[in-house]
Queue: 2 jobs
Job 1
Amino acid sequence: MNTSSSRPVVLCLSGHDPSGGAGLQADIEALMAQGCHAAPTVTALTVQNSVDVSDFRVLDSAWVLAQAEAVITDLPIAGVKLGMLGSVEMVDTVASILQRLPNVPVVCDPVLRAGGGGALGKDEVGYAMRERLLPLATVVTPNLPEARILAELPNGTADECAAKLLPFCQHLLITGGHGDEQEVHNRLYSRDGSSHTFTCDRLPGSYHGSGCTLASTLAGRLALGEATVEAVENALAYTWRTLRDADRSGKGQHFPRRLPLDFCD
């Protein structure tokens, strides 16, 4: 029996989605596909499916701290992925956890809306994330609607949102796909003034858990030691493939296929 492990451990602080399309299950599957080990710490419970979210409950901070403490004191954390937090108090709780992990790459997915449009936190949660978590993150991965909330620019372009948010973070990846364009433009902005645009073909349909998939994959690629631009490019390519191969298990959005059918063969 091999008693050592070369798989990087990624601490995931996010919500539980009972449909399995998004949240921690998406994190686990995406990280497995990168050759990483996911350590999921539950921040919130949701009532949702492929159609929309109807309710959520943020866990008590002491429970979240206890979960994270158990993992941090036992496993070598090589990366962190942040997802749904749901309250200002949970933002503060997660910030205190990150203080325990200096020099570990952090990917922050500012989850404020479900794929179906339902709220997963009030706008003030986004503002708290901007002030307290973005400065601790390596890469922040909002879609354009989330970037507009974080930047307080309701009709802002990606460039305008980036100008407002870059003082808070090292790298900002604003994902596209929310308009009618035939090509999706995903833009990576860096505080040093550099920027990169990654384009891909627009796929038909809508998807549940695409943002979780991208952020957790990116956290895994950074944990594996990839440079930021390379990690972003690889994470975007993998996420696009999961959407291309997605299936519609329920009555609403498609679920990304994060693991191949023969994954366990």
Job 2
Amino acid sequence: MDFHREPNTFVGNVKLKVANLERSLQFYQQIIGFNVLERTKTTAVLTADGKTDLVTIEQPANVEPKQGRTTGLYHFALLLPQRSDLADIVNHFVQNGIQIGSSDHLVSEALYLSDPDGNGIEIYVDRVPSEWDWNNGEVAMAVDPLDFADLLSTSKEGKGWNGLPVGTVMGHIHLHVSQLKQAEEFYTKGLGFNVVNRFGTQALFISTGNYHHHIGLNTWAGVGAPTPPVTSTGLGSFTLVFPNEESRGRVVANLKAIGSSVMEENDLFVTVDPSGNRINLQV
């Protein structure tokens, strides 16, 4: 998990807007395996280890379903500590009749599903970084079939499923954007990420510290896709965690230099990417 601690910049919390808080809480606790860290009438903060906030779900007033083909969340991705943890959650999903997608990305093995509001979720485990194939600064990734038989052979007999393991972190976030070139400039020149994979002409993956990706960006919702209404379900914001004040300060200066606005709200710096995705800049 060294890619999700200093000196790297990585995704911390993802905030989601949902239509029904109780329905979402039931899903995120019983199906995904989170515990509730904090709770109000309209908001719940979710954790895997009892202290680190990974997902916040909020039921805004006058909330409405998200329209298709808009910018925002494609999926957020929970990274599990061990391969056996992924096998255990596969068994859990099967026992609960949950439909899932899956893929072998060469660098990782992943499961995909959606919450009751259609917010995409990936749950994955990384392969050992020494097995990743780098060529001219880009890491090889693919969308191959997942070998479930081999994966399930790692499940620890009799262990069962007890929710997300303590070492779970927010592995990455993948976003729908309006224009890929604009997004690349914002996230590289502004936020300081490096492009580590170009997936055709419609998606790219960026990271710090030679991770396979902390953020994915795509135009699969359509080039020029509009920003959804503020009252729409979907992505509220996500948090980037910087190693120190100095590194965050450099990023704030770089964002302003490329013409992006940075707001300060209660000791928190906030920016918005060119596609309307709201980002909290945290140390």
